[in-house]
Amino acid sequence: MTFLKDKRVVAFFAGLIIVILLFLSGMHQLSLSKKELAMLKGQRNELLLLKDEYLSLKQRMDSVEGRKSLSGPQGIVQAVDEVFQSMGLKDKIKTLKSTGKKEIKDGFEENADLSIEKVTMNEMVNILYRIENAPMVLTMKKVTIKKSFENPELMNISLDLSFLKTK
Questions:
Q1: What whole-number distance in Å separates Cα of residue 163 and Cα of residue 135?
Q2: For position 66, what pLDDT does the model report?
Q3: For residue 110, which of 25, 42, 101, 149 is within the disulfide window of CB 3.0 to 4.6 Å?
Q4: What is the pLDDT of residues 105-118, one digit of tens each?
Q5: What's the per-residue H, E or C state across the chain?
Q6: Average pLDDT by consecutive 10-residue portion of the chain (167 residues)?
Q7: Are 123 and 89 in contact, with CB atoms under 8 Å apart?
C-alpha cells in the first residue's frame, strides 16, 4: 500500500511538473508574441508615415504635372505678360531679357531676367504670389529686392525666372 501511495505521489508530482513546464512554455510564447506585436506596430507606424509622405509628394507632383499640361503661353515673355497683365502692373516692368532656352528631358526650359521698378510692398507680394501660383510652370531662381532711390517706400525687384514647357 505504501508503494501505491508512493506511486500516486510520484504521478501527482510528475503531472504537476508537466503542468508547470507547459505553463512556462506558454508564458515564453506569450512573451515572444508580445515582442513581435510591438515590432510589427513600430513597422506599421513607419509605413503610415511613409504613406503620408508619399501621398503628399504625389499630390505636389500631380499639381505640377497639371500645371505643365495646361495649354498656355508659348514662351517666358508671354507667361510674364500674362501674369503682369492680370494685375495691371505691366507698365512697372523695366526690362525682360530672355537669357536662353535649353532642352531638358521632357521639354524646354527658358530662362529670363526680369527687372521691375517702383512697386509697393503689397504689389511685390502679389507679384511673387502670382508667379508662384501661375497656371504654368514658372519658377523663380533668384530674387533681388532693393529700395528705390526716388522713394524709399517703393522697391526695385530683379528676378531670374524659369519657364518649363513640355514638348
A1: 11
A2: 62
A3: 101
A4: 777 788 889 888 88
A5: CHHHHHHHHHHHHHHHHHHHHHHHHHHHHHHHHHHHHHHHHHHHHHHHHHHHHHHHHHHHHHHHHHHHHCCCCCCHHHHHHHHHHHHCCHHHEEEEEEEEEEEECCEEEEEEEEEEEEECHHHHHHHHHHHHCCCCEEEEEEEEEEECCCCCCCEEEEEEEEEEEEC
A6: 72 91 94 95 94 89 63 72 79 82 79 88 87 79 87 88 79
A7: yes
Cα gap 11→116, rounded to integer Å: 100
Per-residue model confidence (pLDDT) at position 26 = 93
Asked whether the CA dihedral 80, 88, 158, 129 is positive or negative, the reply is negative
Residue with cell 510528475: 14
Q: Are 156 and 132 in contact (CB under 8 A)?
A: no
pTM score above 0.70:
no
Q: What's the pLDDT score for residue 17? A: 94
Closest CA to 130 of 96, 83, 164: 83
